[in-house]
Predict the structure.
Amino acid sequence: MPRDVHRQSPPQETLPIRTPRRTPAAIIRARDIESAIDTERHAMALFDENARLVRANGLYNELLACANSPEMQTADPRERARIFDVRDMDGRRLPATRLPVLRALRGDALVGAVGVDLRVRALDGRELILHVTATALSTRSDRATGCVVVLHDMTEAQRLADVLQEIAGRVATLSQVVAVRNLERDVVFDAIADGVLLYDPSGRLLYVNSATRALLGIHDGGPGEAADRVAKQLDEYAQYDVEAGMPPRDAWPLARVLRGETVAGGDAADAIRRLPDGCEQVLNISAAPMYLEGRLAGAVLILRDVTERRRLEREAAEHAKQVEAIFEAMADGLVYYDAAGRVVRMNTATRRLLGYDALAARDVVVQRPWTEHPALRDTSGEHSSLEEWPLVRVLNGEIISSERAVDVRVWGPEGRLGMLAVSGAPIYDNEGRVILAVVSIRDVTEARRLDDERSQMMNTVSHELKTPLSVVAMAHGLIDKRAILGQPPSSDTIDVLADGIAQMTRLVNDLVDAARAETGQLAVKPVPQDLRLVCRTVVAEQMRAVERVITLREPSQPTLVDADTIRISQVLTNLLSNALKYSPPDRPVSVRLQRKKGVARVEVHDDGPGIPPESKPHLFERFYRVPGMKVLHGLSDGLGLGLYIARTLVELHGGKIDVESEERQGATFWFTLPLLSPSIG
């Protein structure tokens, strides 16, 4: 039985107290360790940097009978040592500074034979002998953030060893000593759940325990026959390294251990055999050499059936790939923040929404806290107080569902304004502290734009309908009064009524056309015709309607285009109506038709106030009206749909439409249509 090898250490009994600071990497690593602890087949526990118990697996709780003792979570090392009556192998109480947890946190490597043998008393009164190993968990800067402790129950083995040692001491002859040692081997090895195989220096299998025979399905025959059958079955296994693939024979565990190597931990190899039922059995093989007086005396191999474990690992890896694919394929942005508000991870959608390239995203993940992001604003465009920001609210424990998502403005790297809906939820540790915040980011720029358009449309429609409705109501009242007096309605009243109805009809038609244009249902029926005739007709109608001077210049020869007469007349009427509406009544409006470079071009020029530069990009958008633009002729400035509909109709004809204007110098709106004979003009 190995004994604790004491190292030089400070004599004081004080326990080191550290303030835990867990980085995102440490959190992820701790979670991996916790997962490994839960699946480990030895009693294992995880302690933090202040030697407080963080997590223990079932075997640990069962071994020490402390599953129902929550005070173990908060007890310090000295208190735990007192509760479990920790002593060295000679029965002396172990000083607190020599406890394996504190030694590991100070940097002592307590692994393998360097581990500590201790006597402890479980909470149910059982006296135990434990071989304790411990390893510190460190950051890249070698600062210990905790440690993992493994308890190997040596109680029964020690008892058996003591019994066998007492028996061996009474044996007088060499044959009796050999028999006792064989008995010791059989008793000890048959008590081990893993398969144990002993080889001589030549590689001949000498002994297999009962667990090995059970793993390989051998239940009859004497020890010698069983060993031969086991050796034959092992030759049927394909031994390989998961990452490197099938190694050569001299790299198999048995060959390596007979050369004096130890095959354990990460060097352990998997061996696979296809069973008669078509399934695969996977055995994990570790091995170590045995020496006698400094010479190789044989080897011991340990077999563990990891078939189910490997299957679960494959499924977990596949699931992780699927989760990763979903994470990256999500249209919404997803960001993980640590408790300090620093970005731990973000998906591709987040980088796109916030304008990060791969390199900048890496910098943000590594070092930039969220409060340094210069492009985030609230819906009013200003910084809100920190307490109102979605991330701070989530880190304070609030769940922001998608139904209550907070709108945040974002200015991208090219100055593009966007609107994001932010929701999120916190993630807690076992002590109820928020350690991560998961934040979802959805681009609602277009949705909010449509909401604004819808609101603007309702306001505009209700406002624009008031005037013609009032006119119609007034005319209707006059007609009623004259009817009471037995008089017919006057022609002026009828004209007013007709004008009001016509204006409402135009508004309704514009709304219908705009809706059809938005859904792609606005259609045209082009036929060959002379565009000069369309221009003449529209100009004449407008002159009669408004009694204004409109000049028309046109080519002397026909200008043939393929066009829908009604729809192109609608386009020109809209342009002329705007020119007459926003220009002084005493100034003429001109229309010019010309042919150039295979297209017919129609221009409408007025001497109005012109178009401000900032308004030009928005002129042909739905419901857009130039701010501050006054109507100089007529009663209404419309719904802001005329130019939007005109653009749609021109584009349906394969043409283009645009404006040329300088402030206070008038405006020239123009559109083009393809000529039927491009060679003309």
Notes: The CA atoms of residues 110 and 227 lie 36 Å apart. The chain has 18 helices and 24 strands.
